[in-house]
């Protein structure tokens, strides 16, 4: 009896492998293999002539990584600048877009709201529009004589030259409280090719415009996820909390958010990953300018490989970026873990 | 357990697949690229400035193809650098393609280009400064297609509005400062100046400096000459005698000039076509750039007809380039899309046909070509970043930084 069963199981295993074989082959060929090839390229000094798997392509070991991480020079300076820019970008985009998405979801989830369908469509619309098209529209909106500056002008503020303004927000803030020349201690010392003053610049005005764009486009997508989660929250739980005398804020804080925690985790993770490799907005809108303040690792990787012909270093940048994303996600998982009280 | 098996299977699949691909990746070395005989089909990739150029090159190629019995396909690139990079990596480069002077050394140093320059008949007829631009390790690699130089473009209406006459056109830095003062007093921005080395570099040449030595082997960024130039430009910016285009809400200086936001600009001969197309009512004249302490100076920009070292049709490709660079063909291009012929023998006829361009073509005598060394692009774009912040920056520190980075890139 038992032998017979194992034979049946064996057949199932073969059938199982047969069924997953197409996916295994496709993933291996188009995902795993290219990744391994890129890993090899990141260890060579390949100059883009012919195949990187020929004999004669110089193997340089970890030189490409060293030029990014340990050797003082232009490559490390550019890379660290891009890391700084992206860090501020992530720090602003992820919380704002998550909060905004949750807020929008709560609004359109209300039973009282009329014409829900209209609002849901309106909020979701930016997400289904091509990011290139939206980027171009934002270029016009944030132009010197564009809509944003016209609005600011109506209330008597002279708007900045958005995409030409490389001043960091923190620097501007310090300027308004009277710190208009950087303290010597911050300029003379630094870490990894950038001075502390540069690290503490904050996102530039140009980057802020891109941040506004990204928050606006992606919050619709995440609103949809929150909405799905909110509709799974049983009405009885909310009613129970009402009977317990919880006010609106307490209901949100202690009932709704804990119930949709897996979705919060999902949204934060997706947000983190997509913000760490932002590329198309940068490519369309600023190409890393002004003054490298919108340079991001993903764009730098592209530029290093295809414009400077340093394919090895370009690939190395993308692997360092990959590690950063993995570490950030693990860190976030650890922070949001279930705690035993 | 199951997970391990899956991983192992995937790894095995990957190894198999890579082995299968391996044969496809092997390539013949450049020398053994088999040459085809008989009628051939040439692939030509161009980085076109617009429809006018694409059409002109396509017509010229079709003419050559029908008279020589070959076929020639001209493809305009969306992004020439990237497409070429991918084509070289994939071992399928086009036979003939545009090579920008600023990129030339990158291609030549990795052996992507066929050094055919001296196979072109009468190659000494090309302007000396253009020949230097396309010479690497002592070999003339490719034939210059055409060239441009920078000139001082003056808006005649705004000029007379500021009470200035033809005689006031500045020929020195001091005069440039004094007319700027008058123009600014009349309420116009005096000079629209592009915020890159490709414009501000002209001042460095006028002061007797440049980023690298003539042979492209030594860094010469941190010199008193360059410092003098940057300090002068910084003065212009600080006094609002010059403004960067973005501050005037323009994509480039020519746009700001065309919109009448600035009375002067420093641009190349491409501004003619742009003004004709977008701002046909602007009246302007073109003059040589004002001379600096070390005399006249301008920058030249040029493109050459590169032939891939791995092309299978090199002979036909050289014949094609030969046909594209004759004096007559270059004059035809000049008429079609406003470039200047790279052959001296075409110069006189060009000046006759386009008398307003005299200042541009005369500039070739004292023009400096782009930096002729590989791996310099990121260094130079870092320099551009510094120039964008020149108004409040420290020119001395900027030059020291360029010097350090250039030395690293040149491997000194």
Give a quick account of the main beta sheet of chain B: strands, pairing sense, barrel closure: 11 strands, mixed
Distance between the termini of chain A: 49 Å
Low-confidence stretches of chain B: 1-32
CATH fold label of the largest domain in chain B: D-Maltodextrin-Binding Protein, domain 2
Organism (chain A): Phytohabitans flavus
Membrane topology (chain A): Multi-pass membrane protein
Family (chain A): Belongs to the binding-protein-dependent transport system permease family.
Protein name (chain A): ABC transporter permease
Quick structural overview:
With 341 residues, chain A is an all-alpha fold. Chain A contains 16 helices and 2 strands. The radius of gyration of chain B is 24 Å and the shape is globular.
Topology:
The complex is a heterodimer of chains A (341) and B (412).
Chain A: H1 2-41, H2 63-69, H3 74-108, H4 116-128, H5 131-141, H6 147-154, H7 169-176, H8 184-188, E1 190-191, E2 194-195, H9 196-199, H10 205-231, H11 235-243, H12 248-259, H13 261-276, H14 280-285, H15 297-307, H16 311-335
Antiparallel strand pairs in A: 1-2
Helix pairs in contact in A: 2-16, 3-10, 3-13, 4-10, 5-10, 13-16, 15-16
Chain B: H1 2-25, E1 41-46, H2 51-68, E2 71-76, H3 80-89, E3 96-100, H4 101-109, H5 128-133, E4 135-136, E5 139-140, E6 143-155, H6 156-161, H7 173-185, E7 189-192, H8 197-206, H9 224-238, E8 242-243, H10 253-258, E9 262-268, H11 270-278, E10 284-287, E11 298-307, H12 314-324, H13 327-337, E12 340-341, H14 347-353, H15 358-362, E13 367-368, H16 377-388, H17 395-410
Parallel strand pairs in B: 1-2, 1-3, 7-8, 7-9, 11-13
Antiparallel strand pairs in B: 3-11, 4-5, 6-9, 6-10, 6-11, 6-12
Helix pairs in contact in B: 2-13, 8-9, 16-17
